[in-house]
């Protein structure tokens, strides 16, 4: 079964300019808990997810205000084996997620 290893999430530039970001990472709809992040922060995720066919990794910034929707920072769909960095740069944010995808 194919597996993606999510290694480290780095916040180069946060989306929320007033305080901190509350990033929310989803892997094929499964939420991964992350800490609050600011510019320059790194978080070692070190999580493995098994999937069929392809995997979609989505990063959002959770908004706490009533009626305010979470900000989509980007989404990537992967199916090819390899390692790299996914860039999430929508809504003036800049996050980098290192990963390795293997097909066994």
Describe this structure in words.
This protein is mainly β. 0% of the residues lie in helices and 59% in strands. The protein contains no helices and 8 strands. The chain has strands spanning 2-13, 23-27, 30-32, 42-50, 55-61, 71-78, 82-88, 94-103. The strands form 2 sheets. The protein has a 4-stranded antiparallel beta sheet with strand order 4-1-8-7, with no helix packed on it. A hairpin with a 2-residue loop joins strand 2 (23-27) and strand 3. The protein is globular. The chain starts with a strand and ends with a strand. The model has no long low-confidence stretch (mean pLDDT 93).
Topology:
Layout: E1 2-13, E2 23-27, E3 30-32, E4 42-50, E5 55-61, E6 71-78, E7 82-88, E8 94-103
Antiparallel strand pairs: 1-4, 1-8, 2-3, 2-5, 5-6, 7-8
Please give the largest β-sheet: 4 strands, antiparallel
**Low-confidence spans: pLDDT under 50, at least 5 residues?**
none
Query: Roughly how much helix do the residues carry, as a percent range?
Result: under 10%
- Number of DSSP strands? 8
- Strand order in the sheet with the most strands: 4-1-8-7
Average predicted confidence as pLDDT: 93
What order do the SSEs take from the amino end to the carboxyl end, as H and E?
Answer: EEEEEEEE
Count the helices. How many? 0
């Amino acid at each position: 079964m194919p597996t993606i290893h999510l290694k480290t999430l780095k916040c180069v530039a946060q989306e929320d300019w007033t305080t901190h970001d509350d990033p929310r990472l989803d892997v094929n709809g499964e939420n991964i808990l992350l800490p609050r992040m600011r510019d320059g922060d790194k978080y070692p995720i070190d999580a493995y997810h098994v999937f069929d066919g392809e995997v979609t990794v989505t990063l959002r910034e959770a908004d706490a205000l009533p009626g305010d929707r979470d900000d989509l920072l980007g989404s990537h769909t992967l199916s090819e084996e390899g390692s790299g960095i996914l860039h999430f740069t929508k809504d003036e944010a800049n996050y980098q997620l290192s990963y390795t995808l293997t097909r066994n």
